[in-house]
Design brief:
Pfam families: DUF6000 (PF19463). The chain has helices at residues 16-25, 49-55, 69-81, 84-91, 96-108, 115-124, 131-141, 144-157, 167-177, 179-183, 186-192, 201-226. By secondary structure, the chain is mostly helical. Helix 6 (115-124) packs parallel to helix 8. The termini are far apart.
Length: 227
């Protein structure tokens, strides 16, 4: 089966092999939403194993909020060789691993040209796990456009108490960019977390702060490689 076609199977009856592939890609919770028909770039061809081994495997499972020196060095070294074409392929794949990696390097290399793709991915929320990377990238870009993606996401998904997605990451990213705007959503936030006893906003704020510091360190080391 061609994995590039997985996105077309989100809301259809599938055989067991398609279901396993969708689950592995991160499409664990499939849900109807107002953003599902927004178009995003899709790869025409599947990514090769060599491509994934080089550009994805070392990075997708890393939490930048507690990255060690080796991890930061690896990100910095790879960021030098990274290009917009590679990131576009990462973001155009239907898998959380490739997408979060694409979001990470968009943030590291300040690839603002991918702001709309990342924002749309966040709104559509086709796959789990990648949202942390999307929110981090949008927080890094820091534009009004990035902020509006976070506002649109929160305005809808804070009303979906059944979907335990990336609301905390998005709320922290918005508060980082515009606290007054986040304050306007605090009632929705409190209502959303009323049935989520283990959701701790302070922990997410700390994770975002740590991740932003890690990005600064990665960029500093990258600069040394370029000298």
């Amino acid at each position: 089966m061609s994995f590039k076609k997985l996105w077309t199977k989100l809301f259809t009856r599938n055989d067991v092999f398609d279901e396993i592939a969708l689950h592995s890609a991160g499409a664990i919770i499939r849900h109807r939403n107002p953003f599902e028909n927004i178009e995003v770039p899709r790869n025409e061809d599947d990514l090769t194993e060599e491509f994934i081994e080089k550009w994805v495997v070392p990075f997708y499972s890393v939490s930048l909020s507690n990255a060690n020196d080796i991890t930061i060095e690896t990100f910095a070294e790879t960021a030098v060789a990274m290009s917009p074409d590679i990131v576009l392929k990462l973001l155009g794949d239907f898998d959380w691993r490739t997408r979060i990696t694409g979001a990470y390097f968009s943030a590291i290399n300040n690839y603002h040209e991918f702001e709309d793709i990342i924002g749309k991915h966040l709104l559509k929320s086709e796959v789990c796990y990648a949202g942390t990377g999307y929110c981090l990238a949008l927080a890094t870009f820091g534009t009004d456009n990035a902020k509006q993606y976070l506002v649109r996401y929160l305005d809808y998904y804070l009303g979906r108490k059944d979907l335990w997605f990336d609301q905390a990451d998005a709320f922290c990213a918005l508060a980082y960019l515009d606290k007054s705007q986040a304050d306007k959503l605090i009632k929705k936030w409190n209502s959303f977390v009323a049935n989520k006893q283990n959701w701790n906003l302070e922990n997410h704020i700390k994770q975002l702060s740590n991740s932003l510091q890690a990005l600064d360190q990665i960029r500093e080391i990258k600069t040394l490689y370029l000298e």
